[in-house]
Amino acid sequence: MIATIEHMSPRRPRDDRAPSQVDVAQLAGVSTQTVSRVMSGQDNVRPDTARRVLAAVEELGYRVHAAAASLASGRTRVLGVIVVSTDRYSSAALGVGIQQAAAANGYTVSTAAVADHASAEAFLEAFDRLERQGAEGIILGVPLELESPAMRARTERTPATRSERTSLEEDAPLAVDQRAIARLAVEHLLDLGHKTVWHVSGDDYWTETQQRSEAWEQTLRDRGIVPPPLIPADWTPESGYRAGRTIAAIPEATAVFVSSDEMAFGLIRALHEAGRSVPDDVSVVSVDDIALAAYASPALTTVRQPFEAMGRAAALRVIAQIEGHEAVGEMPSTDPQLIVRSSTAPPRTA
């Protein structure tokens, strides 16, 4: 008897029941432990194996059923996230990583947004609001200290973690060295032959702004260069545009370190409008490496940060705190990466 295609294919679940982890494993040709590792975001699975598992998940429509699990366990399986109301790329990318890790582990995400420059009381109220909504753990995507007495009282009853550290010594799942970001940018421009580097900073409400500005200044001083005046901005393209008009009016300015790609877009437009070419007249290095950075004109030289990985790590950490086991998938401090493209070049006089 000739075997049919159905006989030769891995078994699929009947139409009258939802697909299970066993079904995914059979279709992908792997063990259920491997399926579990892929779904929980662990990185100890071969890329081709992970692709097979994810393809099987998609084909079968397999989902972790949070509602059923919650009913059986009496738990909500909700993660809370406190964010600042903003359209910054970093916040969105962090959110993507948090959602990915939460979904893979059978959790849903509830978000509480607070206004930019909100008071500490507003953050605490957001924390309390998420607790009332049943959040079992909370991720802070905001510049809020966990060590304050009011916050410590809350974290004693509800696990919490930051989405990133404000310093390398703090206890958080992933750190990007903000000072290293500035050093990479400034040293790249100085090594090209520029005599100094101007800096367009982000909003000083954020710790990363302070750390990058300090490292920009120190890197110049280490090279025997007196830093030029800092140009403050607020992360928006509009503030970058205003900073670009300032730079355009300074003939000796040939190199700029801008603290975000979005501000760099505004800055480059202002320079072009003033008749100053990038990179022929002014070289520009920015931070983040958002998707548009590679397609700008010119393509941006930028310092990449792993935002989605940071979000996944934060979610895995707080899930581990909730469930009382060692976090799986936590990552050590991650070095930022300089991505050299077309917005930097040696100065004309070099």
UniProtKB/TrEMBL annotation:
Domain of life assignment: Bacteria
Biased composition (Basic and acidic residues): 8-18
Location of region: Disordered: 1-20, 330-350
Residues forming coiled coils: none
InterPro entries for this protein: HTH_LacI, LacI/GalR-like_sensor, Lambda_DNA-bd_dom_sf, Peripla_BP_I
SUPFAM superfamilies the record matches: lambda repressor-like DNA-binding domains, Periplasmic binding protein-like I
Keyword terms of this UniProt record: DNA-binding, Transcription, Transcription regulation
GO MF annotation: an example: DNA-binding transcription factor activity
Residue span, HTH lacI-type domain: 19-73
Bias kind Polar residues: ranges: 334-350
Cited CDD domains: HTH_LacI (cd01392)
Protein's UniProt name: Catabolite control protein A
Organism of origin: Microbacterium oxydans
Source lineage: Bacteria, Bacillati, Actinomycetota, Actinomycetes, Micrococcales
